[in-house]
Design a protein that fits this description.
380 residues; mainly alpha; 16 helices
Length: 380
């Protein structure tokens, strides 16, 4: 049955009533208001109106996402204050454990840390300082929380940044190949390995790698350090770079093994959804090679659902990996958070929580702002 919008055969061939003549005379264009190939004043106005409408829609989309990010940050501030105050333990008694202290000295410390104030006053003081960038003073390190975080950021960026780049690239490549050859032995093998590694706890895998490759197992000697960022031998220059790289192998391998699986599975699922599209059939009908159809048409569209996940992974670069950094004694934000949580060092724990959550919110915001640029249908 022929659709009402389908042109008649004569019209498609350009041989209908007045077909060639209308083409020769520059007949009616698609809009039915101006000759094809010419620009009318009304067409220009229509184009300008559409462009301004698109810009206005994007501005509304961006404003909504920015407002949501601000609300999320405020919610993080509230959560970070109350969440860690329900933890068991007294910070003052923990810090003075094993030391002879009088009740008066304990009271003085509580007053110094502001723990003797009413909870509502502690909350208002914390929010007021946090909004100005003051995250407080660490109980155990006696240093500003902001400075402590800034000191640990480079080590975390080096470790998790390297891992995120590696497992994102590996996951995208293997996910594309698995989807394009779905059902093959390679696809089943890649998917099985990814699902297995994704279900493995990162700290357990890290401990296993330490036992096998650091301590040594049977005839296999220990090849890598058990932890830390450097050997402390005073190496400089290229020797220092090699030393740090040697210490990075096992923690990076742990993060890559656990992290690439998510990227692979998401990319594989997205590409499988795209492979049934008519535009791929059209591209093949035009004579494009299968590899070019995949790279130029299928993969760019399949990448759109992966954008959010990639930016979430970039948020993890700032947050680090608490478990992996703790297992390998890596001097980053994750290890610092574990130290603060063991006291609990409330200002430091709260500051790190805000930094971790803030990084994730900012990365999600960037992804939301990029979506309409990658796919114009979003945000309309």
């Amino acid at each position: 049955m022929t659709s009402a919008s389908t042109p008649a055969p004569a019209e498609r061939a350009g041989t209908g009533s007045g077909g060639p003549a209308r083409a020769a005379e520059g007949g009616t264009g698609p809009s039915g208001t101006a000759p094809s190939g010419t620009t009318s004043p009304s067409g220009t106005a229509s184009s300008g109106t559409a462009s301004s409408g698109t810009a206005l829609a994007y501005a509304r989309h961006a404003a909504g996402k920015l407002a949501g990010a601000v609300v999320s940050l405020l919610a993080v501030l509230v959560t970070s204050f109350f969440l860690f105050r329900i933890l068991p333990g007294d910070p003052v008694r923990t810090m003075t454990r094993g030391k002879a202290t009088t009740p008066e000295q304990l009271a003085t410390l509580r007053h110094q840390f502001g723990l003797d104030q009413p909870l509502w006053q502690q909350f208002t003081d914390y929010c007021g300082k946090a909004l100005t960038g003051d995250l407080g003073m660490s109980f155990q390190f006696h240093a500003p929380v902001g400075e402590l975080i800034a000191q640990k950021v480079p080590a975390t960026l080096l470790l998790t940044g390297t891992a995120v780049v590696l497992y994102s690239a590996l996951g995208l490549w293997l996910g594309t190949r698995s989807a394009w050859r779905h059902g093959s032995l390679g696809d089943r093998l890649n998917t099985g390995v990814a699902l297995t590694l994704w279900s493995v706890p990162s700290f357990w895998l890290g401990l296993l790698l330490i036992i096998v490759f650091s301590v040594g197992l049977g005839p296999l000697p220990g090849l890598f350090p058990t932890g830390g960022m450097e050997s402390g031998t005073g190496e400089t220059g290229f020797g220092y770079v090699l030393d740090v790289g040697h210490h990075m192998v096992l923690p990076v391998l742990t993060l890559v093994a656990v992290g690439y699986a998510q990227t692979l599975l998401v990319m594989r699922s997205s590409l499988l959804d795209e492979m049934g599209g008519d535009y791929l059939t059209t591209a093949r009908a035009k004579g494009l090679r299968d590899d070019m159809v995949r790279r130029r048409h299928a993969v760019p569209n399949a990448l759109l659902p992966t954008v959010t996940m990639v930016f979430i992974n970039l948020g993890h670069v700032a947050a680090g990996s608490i478990l992996v950094e703790t297992v390998f004694s890596w001097p980053g934000l994750g290890g610092l958070f574990y130290q603060a949580l063991s006291v609990p060092d409330l200002p430091l724990v709260q500051g790190l929580f805000v930094a971790f959550a803030g990084a994730m919110i900012v990365m999600n915001l960037i992804a939301d702002l990029l979506y309409p640029l990658l796919d114009p249908r979003v945000g309309r």
